[in-house]
Amino acid sequence: MVHYRTAIVDSHNIFYREAGDPQHPTLLLLHGFPTSSHMFRDLIPLLEDRFHVVAPDLPGFGFTTSPAQFEYTFDNLAEVIEAFTQTLGLAHYAIYVFNYGAPTGFRLAMAHPERVTAIISQNGNAYEEGLSTGWNPIQKYWQEPSAANRAALRGFLTPESTKWQYVHGVPDESLVAPESYTLDSALLARPGNDEIQLDLFLDYANNVALYPKFHQYFAAHQPPFLAVWGKSDPFFLPPGAEAFRRDLPKAEIHFYDTGHFALETHVAEIATAIRAFLSREVLTKSAAG
Q1: 275 within 8 A of 252, measured Cβ to Cβ
Q2: Which residues are known to be catalytic?
Q3: Hey, how many other C-beta atoms are within 10 angstroms of the C-beta on 191?
Q4: What is the C-alpha separation between 94 and 142, in angstroms, rounded?
Q5: Would you state the pLDDT for residue 283?
Q6: Which of 2, 61, 73 is nearest to 36 (CA)?
């Protein structure tokens, strides 16, 4: 049974989905652009019998609301989510990171490595070779943050672009539920949300700048790591998944014949991989401890 809750965190009203016994090991699900915790709607029921699953909407996304003066940077997103975990009393947790959830979750792990029991990356990048040419317009904005380059990125915020992100690279588009991209488009269209997303496009450059520190964290702490990757992702390429093994030689990596939103078509396969991974790396170690 999935519960739909809100938590007040430093004047933010954080919407989140929660399922499973809080006495079980926690899995924190962190979504990305342009979606919300809704992307985990089919995954949560496949995990809740053995894990305590928590999926918040990041500030600027889904049903979370934030103060008008909030500055949308990835540092600030991570600070809010860290405070959210403390508000809920999550002392230890594994993280599932997708897209924007990756730089958010990796910041949590770097700040408090003792809290993060394992990492699952679903098309959540941390290496430059994982960035496709699809990033070129955004990288141009990083290099020259002009009004013209900012305006050029508004095309990423249209309903057509959102749907394309869901169906590109999917062999059978009829497997992708239309409410997924339709809900995302409706929430992106709220007044002022476009400026939030454009601010985050610009600040993503700071995530790339942090890649070496992410690598240092991986190498120093060797967290158990699973990559479940849509191999036809137009933004985050398979070499980005394979690169994790440079710093995490024991990383487990799986590729699926699908696109960016791999859960839309391969949720059963990914859930099976997650259950096996967490059972081995978290449940077994927790019982032994």
Answers
A1: no
A2: 260
A3: 6
A4: 32
A5: 79
A6: 61
